[in-house]
Design brief:
Chain lengths: 289, 442
């Protein structure tokens, strides 16, 4: 009885020790050196795996940083400058400061402004609809309203507004990963520099038709008249293909352009209500009318 | 037993309402818009300017590459402007807009009705004439015909198949053309045979057109090596690969050109256009269009100049019925609803189909019940339910390995699905994406 117990212990221990030695040798033989900094960098990243940096995920981004040993052209939009500074300390490099950005939808074609002229019954995704048809209105550049941008957002930052039929961005949640920019087949979404209190002035239109057809399709379309371009003192506004564009890096939020726009295509967001008496009266009269 | 293709296929209600209506000529429109991308491949390059006075048959846009073709003016008058107009899909495309004045033809075009049976052009000269006349496949795919006539090096065509199947329900333009221009089609066939150096040609016609089969069999006795092959009625027999399988029994390998097994397919409309281009010097600027639908007063076949607005054809067929839901360019299976009735007729418009409110809406989509009917009707042997599912989750690699590029977009799967699932919409999207990926690899 005790003999068999002893034998069992001896045999099993021998097998165990032999296996341990073999495993140790194999592990030595096939040892792969991994830079410990990869793990450290990955830990510093927000682990959102959104792909906003242009890499397949946070791990791939960390690997790329350590492999290239530089931070040039590498930026985590989710973590922003704070995370990039942390990574820079780990790597012993200096990170370039980048202004935070936020997504802006450049279409204001609500049902009111842009009447429906067609009826599409196919698959209700923007990608499929855009492949087959220009959309349900006469504007071939505007929002299709099926919400592909909302589906791809990992941060719950963009939602369709059922009243307007257009997507709306929650600036506090948006990390500017760019997933919605990629998803929009009409190329409506732009990542713009975040200003204090999320104030923005932008052209909410992508219609590149000439004034007449653009205006006919949508009452708030940019007609490319160039009035805003003349008004801007900072060279922030450019007109090309009958369409104005306000460069958010140059814009100083002076708000001189919006009042001159004949079609109200320039939108001002998150500004306090006007205090000037004149404008107040003007607003009143327009509201009454 | 009649010949047909083996795999899949459906048989929708034929509804050939305009089969006994002779082809009518439409009065000239006053303002025509000629799109420069009426064919598969690079859009043609416009060579006229605003204010130019042009004649019927004059070249207005030049071929921009090998897979591209010329576009000729179907009208005489003045070029009003060069602008963008909405095409079938609603997107704006470049076009030449002509203010029509009179009907003055180029002197080189033979406008008489006399049959020209002989000429002494060689193969190269025939192909050149087809190229300069801007001929494309008139069955609907609008693939430039001269490309088909110049097989890649190492491949040799053995047999020419002429497609008189017209398997799409409602459409009768090819049927009428065969009845009224049978002799011309046979001469056109002869010309294509000569340019391809092939000794044998077969015209495939479905059994539901017995008058066309009878007439062409009678006429073809005079022509050596051209025979008529009656086929069983089955959709999509007019597909290139299905027609080859039905007539010759050979299958075109996945991803290969039909000429790799020695077959070249052309439509009867194309054969007629070849006859006109080679024998009469008349470039392609007219085609036969069927205007039809359950609610339309007089379903008809018209011989129309390209660039005529669709609305004028509908007017000529008795006007737009009140409860119209959709206007389809093409047939009910493969056609596409058009964004507005002002779009012009192009080289690929084989029919205008008016769909009423009752028929014109999609039914509610159900869940896939795994019945497998889409698989059994797919003429290419694909698995439509799988392609749709993969396309929905954007797994493009897998979509590609499931041979999405073989899909001929015939719509048999969507037609059959008892749950009304939009199979073809998703497959077409997947095909579009995959072809983009394949192109970017090169």
């Amino acid at each position: 009885m005790s003999e068999s117990l002893i034998y069992t212990i001896i045999i099993l221990s021998t097998i165990g020790i032999a296996a341990a030695i073999i495993l140790y040798l194999i592990a030595r033989k096939f040892y792969v050196y991994e830079d410990p900094r990869i793990g450290q960098v990955e830990e510093a990243l927000p682990a959102a795996n959104c792909g906003g940096c242009g890499y397949a995920g946070c791990r791939a981004f960390a690997e790329a940083i350590v492999k290239d040993n530089s931070l040039a052209d590498k930026f985590c939009p989710v973590g922003g400058n704070e995370v990039m500074d942390k990574i820079a300390t780990i790597m012993g490099l200096t990170a370039e400061k980048k202004a935070p950005r936020t997504a802006v939808v450049r279409c204001n074609g609500t049902c009111e402004h842009r009447p429906k002229t067609h009826n599409y019954e196919g698959v209700k995704t923007c990608a499929v609809a855009a492949m087959n048809y220009s959309g349900e209105t006469d504007c071939q550049y505007g929002c299709l309203g099926f919400g592909d941008c909302c589906v791809v957002c990992d941060f719950d930052a963009i939602h369709m507004n059922p009243e307007t039929g257009l997507p709306e961005v929650n600036d506090e949640k948006c990390v500017a990963c760019g997933a919605c920019v990629e998803a929009c087949p009409k190329n409506l979404i732009e990542l713009r520099k975040v200003m204090p209190k999320y104030r923005k002035v932008y052209v909410a239109c992508r219609n590149m038709d000439k004034g007449g057809p653009a205006r006919k399709a949508c009452t708030v379309a940019c007609i490319g008249c160039g009035k805003c371009e003349q008004e801007c003192k900072f060279d922030a506004i450019t007109i090309s293909n009958n369409l104005a564009f306000i460069d958010s890096d140059k814009c100083k939020l002076c708000r001189k352009c919006a009042p001159v726009c004949p079609t109200n295509a320039i939108i001002e967001e998150n500004f306090p209500p006007p205090k000037n008496k004149e404008t107040e009266e003007k607003l009143k009269t327009t509201a009454e009318a | 037993m009649l010949k047909t293709f083996k795999k899949g296929g459906v048989h929708p209600a034929e509804n050939k309402l305009s089969a006994d209506k002779a082809i009518l000529k439409l009065p000239l429109t006053s303002k025509a818009s000629i799109l420069v991308s009426q064919h598969i491949g690079a859009p043609a390059k416009i060579i006229v300017n605003k204010g130019d006075v042009i004649k019927v048959g004059q070249l207005i846009a030049q071929s921009a590459g090998f897979v591209s073709t010329n576009i000729h003016s179907p009208f005489s008058g003045k070029v009003a402007r060069i602008d963008t107009i909405t095409d079938n899909s609603g997107y704006k495309k470049e076009a030449v807009i002509i203010n029509v004045e009179g009907d003055e033809w180029l002197d080189t075009i033979d406008r008489s009705d006399t049959l020209v049976t002989e000429n002494n052009l060689d193969a190269k000269e025939i192909t050149d004439k087809i190229l300069s006349a801007g001929i494309v496949g008139l069955g609907g795919a609008t693939f430039p015909t001269h490309v088909k006539l110049m097989p890649p090096p190492g491949l040799k065509a053995e047999i020419l198949l002429i497609n008189g199947v017209e398997c799409e329900p409602y459409l009768t333009s090819d049927h009428r053309l065969m009845l009224e221009k049978g002799e011309e089609i046979l001469i056109g066939t002869k010309l294509i045979m000569k340019s391809l150096h092939v000794e044998k040609a077969v015209i495939g016609i479905e059994k539901n057109k017995p008058d066309a089969i009878k007439l062409l069999s009678e006429l073809s006795k005079k022509y050596k090596n051209i025979s008529i092959c009656p086929l069983k009625v089955k959709y999509p027999q007019g597909g290139e690969k299905q027609l080859i399988k039905a007539i010759t029994g050979y299958e075109v390998p996945s991803g290969a050109l039909p000429v790799s097994i020695g077959a070249v397919v052309n439509n009867v409309g194309t054969a007629f256009a070849v006859y006109e281009a080679v024998m009469k010097n008349k470039p392609l600027f007219e085609r036969v269009v069927t205007v039809t639908g359950q609610a339309i007063k007089e379903p008809s076949n018209f011989r129309v100049r390209l660039g005529t607005p669709v609305s004028e054809l509908i007017e000529a067929a008795g006007g737009l019925p009140e409860d119209t839901a959709r206007i389809i360019s093409g047939g009910p299976m493969m056609g596409k609803a058009i964004a507005s009735a002002d779009v012009p007729i192009t080289k690929g418009t084989s029919g205008i189909l008016i769909i009423s409110e009752k028929e014109g809406h999609r039914k509610p989509i159900g869940n896939c019940i795994r019945c497998g009917r889409c698989i059994s009707v797919c003429p290419m042997g694909l698995e439509p339910y799988l392609l749709m599912a993969l396309s929905e989750i954007k797994n493009w690699e897998h979509v590609e390995s499931e041979k999405v590029m073989d899909c001929i977009e015939c719509g048999s799967c969507s037609y059959t699905c008892p749950a009304n699932r939009p199979l073809l919409d998703h497959i077409r999207f997947g095909k579009n994406k995959v072809s983009g990926i394949i192109r970017s690899r090169k």
